[in-house]
Specification:
Pfam families: SusD-like_3 (PF14322), SusD_RagB (PF07980)
CATH class of one domain: Mainly Alpha
InterPro entries: SusD-like_N (IPR033985), SusD_RagB_dom (IPR012944), TPR-like_helical_dom_sf (IPR011990)
CATH topology of one domain: Serine Threonine Protein Phosphatase 5, Tetratricopeptide repeat
Protein name: Starch-binding associating with outer membrane
Subcellular location: Cell outer membrane
Strand content: 5-15%
Radius of gyration: 22 Å
Main location: membrane
Amino acid sequence: MALVGAALLGFTSACEVTELVPANLIPDSEAFATGARIESAVLGVYESAQRGFYSNAVQRGYPFGAANVEQGDLRGEDMYNDQAFYEITYNNSYSPVSANNVGMWISLYRMINRLNIILESLDVAVTNGVITAEAGNAYKGEMLFMRALAHHELLIHFARPYSDDPSSAGIPYRVFGINDVTKVPDGEAVPRGTVGEDYTQLLKDLDAAEGFLPEGGAFRANKGAAIALKSRIKLHMKDWAGVLAEYTKLTSKYAVTANPATPFRGGTSSDNIFSFVNSAAANPGVNGALPSMYGNPNLGARGLVKISPIIWRADFWNAADTRRTSMTTQSSTGIFTSKYLDATTYTDPNVILRFSEVVLNASEAYARTSKMTEAVTLLNSVRSRALPVSVPPYTVDGLGAGVLDAIFNERRIEFLAEGRRWPDIHRLSGEGLMPGIPLKATSRSITKLSFYESGAIPMDHSLAYTSHLFVWPIPLDELQTNISSPIAQNPGY
């Protein structure tokens, strides 16, 4: 079982991921003996998310440094891969041993195992008077939120979508920790289950997290984050009433910012619900930080990923939109996002949940239930704040039968360079509204700015939904090391 190595590491390291000072090298037997050590263990989970594991190394951005964003973008067509780092993701050439997908599997399950160990220890700590019941519940909420976030990331990459068939093979949903070799057989015995069963557990975790968590800032899991993640998950389930119910809970607490750049400028805003924080002392490093990977090389970044000319030249993206006029930069080789700016010390947060997403989720839910006026009103609340007053808002009559398409296109613009394109391709392909991964600009071909202006764009790397490559393979290490109750490989690999 690939996560066993992490299980036996316990809580041996942590970092200043939330501007607090956790302890280092705490043995498992003592990790929950004081309130400070419990806090350190919890912060270690945030660290394992922020800069976890990749090929026996840290500081490569797995799973929630830059990796989740890059994987989510480069499985789609709107961001363009310019180098080798994520080429197997971009051109669909992954295998059971390719590093990008294997790194996501291992780092996510390592993170899950750490938080499960904490969850199993909190009630004892409360009973022993180490922490208060209130503190224990808050920690439970944080860990349950993180568990759902990690498992959903696994589901959208390694399983077919809920929107196709909830009875299809899911992923092992791990709800207990392994910190001793005697527990390994129990871990190996956890089956893949079904996608439907996994989604049921996701919502169970998040409902509990919502009850436990307090309101709070964006850099720790909070009540709003649990609700926002439920909104996302219910969208994948086509539970339109559920999407609207979660949206309603947040309307008095958050708001779309007038300036689309505000959520990415390091502080808190009305649009920020949950982010993984970075600092100069604790970040995923040059090979795993968003400003390094996505930034303009003229401004000191590595510039491995840039905006694709496909979306830049799309007729639905207005030329006067501030998300292209003031949130991008140009070099001689192409156009780069400026959502992430600090290519020197890598302090830009990885924004995971924004109210803008919850709003567009609700807009889609209204459209799916034939409430077009409400759908278009919410759509305009995101779109129009990025456009000059001379550009009229959408109307129901003007869009006609194209309301859903307008919402899908707005998601492509608003969440560009945030890793949200693949989850939409995943769920919409499962539903039959997309045929799979669309054509992309051919890897290594977009070498100059003129491709963004006119002329033919070299195209390749589309993938039919029916292809076995649409979902990633279970890593070979997972199959080979699980000797007592091996799980099934995805068909075709």
